[in-house]
Amino acid sequence: MMPRTVLITGATAGIGRAAARMFVADGWTVIGTGRREARLQELRDELGETFHPLAFDISDPAQIKAAVAGLSGDLADVDLLINNAGLALGTTPVPDVDLDQWVRMIDTNVTGLTVMTHELLPTLIVRNGGIINVASIAGNYAYPGGNVYGATKAFVRQLSLNLRADLWGTGVRVTVLEPGMTETEFTLVRTNGDKSSHDKLYNSADPLTAEDMAETLLWIASRPAHVNVNTLEVMPVSQSFAGIRIHHTT
Questions:
Q1: What is the pLDDT along the chain (250 residues), one digit of tens a residue?
Q2: Cβ-count burial of 182 within 10 angstroms (0-12 exposed, 13-18 middle, 19+ buried)?
Q3: How far apart are CA 164 and CA 131, in angstroms?
Q4: Which of 15, 121, 182, 249 could form a disulfide with 208 if both were Cys (CB 3.0 to 4.6 A apart)?
Q5: Do the beta carbons of residue 26 and residue 4 sit within 8 Å?
Q6: What is the pTM of this model?
Q7: Phi-psi region of 183 (alpha: psi -120 to 50; beta: other; left: phi over 0)
Q8: Distance between CA 160 and CA 166 in Å, rounded?
Q9: Of residues 141, 143, 149, 202, which has the active-site annotation?
Q10: According to CATH, what is the number of the domain 5-234?
Q11: CA-to-CA distance for 182 and 50, rounded, in angstroms?
Q12: Is 202 among the catalytic positions?
């Protein structure tokens, strides 16, 4: 099997960290990115020389461009991009939201993903590579407090489909993975470290795990070259679609 290189954004925690471990175990060279350099170094110490930490802020286009331009040698030959970095902030209804949180989510989930994809596209086309964008069921099913977070994930879904259309004939595969409830640091970040909110959501719910999603990412990446998984929505059995609510005035 030819050597394969994957760049995984958001590798410092959750799905990204689990994916880094799983891809290294499968024989891939992994470039893991994130803001928290110490966590990336911990992965390097754990996984060895086939894991390469790359610390920068995904919400800053200039840092993305510099990081990609700095890849050299075999590390420049990226075969697969996994756009995993993303976050949700806040659960308040639209009239009470903090605009700065909206902007930060857009900068990370939309702008960061878009710039990273654009920077690596020339390499991915040359190498007949692939892109897996991690979105969310929040982009498909609206819920109270989801507002801009859900909108950013709907963007990720649509961009993935449009990439698929425009990359026809290049050999580049594009998939959007849409996880449901997955127990990671996601809710702690969203609620500014509120452990009770985290426990209320996940306890006794038997949610998906980061390892479940990492295994799914590896499965997508391991399909034969002529197979493209367009979209894949995954939920735990305990989770289902939200109902439509009706507000009665009396």
A1: 567 999 999 999 999 999 999 999 999 999 999 999 999 999 999 999 999 999 999 999 999 999 999 999 999 999 999 999 999 999 889 988 999 999 999 999 999 999 999 999 999 999 999 999 999 999 999 999 999 999 999 999 999 999 999 999 999 999 999 999 999 988 889 888 989 989 988 999 999 999 999 999 999 999 999 999 999 999 999 999 877 777 778 7
A2: buried
A3: 9
A4: 182
A5: no
A6: 0.95
A7: beta
A8: 10
A9: 149
A10: 3.40.50.720
A11: 27
A12: no
CA 106, CA 88: separation in Å to the nearest integer?
10
Q: How many Cα atoms within 13 Å fall on the side-chain side of residue 74?
A: 13
Domain boundaries defined on the chain: 5-234
User: Tokens for 67?
Assistant: 């990081």
User: Both tokens of residue 150?
Assistant: 């859900």
d(CA 230, CA 232): 7
Residue of 55, 64, 61, 53 lying closest to 30 (CA atoms): 53
Distances (CA, A) of 171 to 27, 127, 222, 235: 22, 9, 15, 29
